[in-house]
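Schema walkthrough. Field components (list of strings):
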Amino acid sequence: MRWATSTVYQIYPRSFADSDGDGVGDLPGIIGKLDYLQHLGVDVVWVSPFYPSPMVDNGYDISDYQDVDPLFGTLEDVDELIAGLHARNMVLVIDVVINHTSAAHPWFVESRTVPETPKRDWYWWRPPREGMPFGAPGAEPTNWVSFFSESAWEADPGIGEYYLHLFARDQPDLNWENPAVRQELYAMMRWWLDRGVDGFRLDVINVVSKDLPLRDGEPLPGSPYGAGFPLFTCGPRIHEFMAELHQEVLAPYRATGREVLTVAETPGATTADAVLFTDPGRAEVDMVFQFEHMAVGRGVSRFDPTPWTLPQLKAVMHRWQQDLGATGWNSLYWNNHDQPRVVSRFGSGRPEYRAASAKALATALHLQRGTPYVYQGEELGMTNYPFTGVEQLVDIESVNHLASRMAAGSAPEQVLAGLIEGSRDNARTPMQWDAGRHGGFTSGTPWLPVNPNHEVINAAAQVDDPASVFSWYRALIALRRELPVVAHGDFVPLASEDQQLWAFLRRLDDARLLVLVNVSDEPVAVDLTALSQELGESPWQPTDLVLGTHESPAPTTLRPWEAALWWL
Ligand code: TEU
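Field assembly_structure (string):
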């Protein structure tokens, strides 16, 4: 696996670094931080969408796939970014959002305005439900709810039909059943490869194959809608489409010796699906983003925080490790631009343990088998924002959720706690570069406020501090390159039921690495005899420390949020 020794760094350009003082991060801002990324040690950089966009979903609504939004810069800036990365032995992965376009994309504008155009079939147009007049309540072609709380169908009075949008109404789904659509998208991706990019993150790619005919899903309790999810998640032609994309876009480039990374975002994918997507013998994609561990501590939705336990979290992640085995390949992540900050979620609520818990969680993740992803600011232990009112939240998912709950009779105060905990805005407050005004992110007014804790949590304070969260991430990233057992070893879960201890073994030939992490505010005793018995071995007595978060570690006991790696 080419990417086994790699660590990917995700940049959300809007919130990373602002070079021109308009309050929004941009490509020149990223170019100014390449030495920082090189120092961290990552070798792949994934940048979220920077294309022209009405920004209804901050760029995940693309109106031109082959240009750059003036807010972010120019195509020449992309060229300079690629050159700057390559000069530092890093590569660029771009984010392609090809399940849907923006409603402002010329393809969709033509689809909805030009009579008899072949582009009509590029999207999902459907007449009203049989026997119901256009526009009547409940006349939508199916009962599906979109990911953003409203009906997945939007009525177009000009046409007298509805179009499908699994996300916002400004994000119409492309019809992948039409071969012309697919060829157009493949050509666009080849154009970017010709320009010098090194890979693609494929946004929600596992929903492009819808089960036909489109039909109602199971009614959702307490909702006027039904769940279309099972009818378009990893649908009947998904693997055919991925193999075709590989053949048309990636194979010709790989044949010339160029390395191209592909990661498919696949909400709702099972481990069995993931093996099919990532088995190299099938030639689809290199790895997937799964979401099962992101559902731990959540009830019916991400806005429904519920108590969680360490055994629950381990059960999900260990199952992914074991089921993908030697055939599939995992992406390893705690954070991205859609997820609240991991320290606030699974880490310690006590300020004195914040940094230690960031290191402990990083260790549990980065020592697993797969390719780790670090989301901007995670390497500093950045936290959720202290939001106090619904009016502070700007993300479309949060705004729509609030509106739908209020329409159903809830008061804003009843929805507030869930919104504060689950909102994607938590991930999107600006990067905390220093303790100064707006955290060094912008000289203007930031589009989202900088977390007031930037006075304590910031890059300037951490980069040269060997005890910082940053330095610990740096050590973990280096370790993956240095130790073949980390990159290529198998995974053996241990102590699955332990409420505090996260323990596992990585093995490659004679090398055996024992990973011990205390995921709690209390000390924990490690019963090495019990752990060794899980493998039917005589008691382990590790003496050879590889790396530890605390001074003078002992394998038999871990202080709060201590992590240590031992040779066995
Ligand atoms: O996300 C798709 C996705 O499944 C979720 O993580 C999504 O964020 C949603 O909140 C589910 O609750 C991708 C992008 O990462 C996201 O930013 C976009 O909004 C979405 O696709 C549409 O392009």
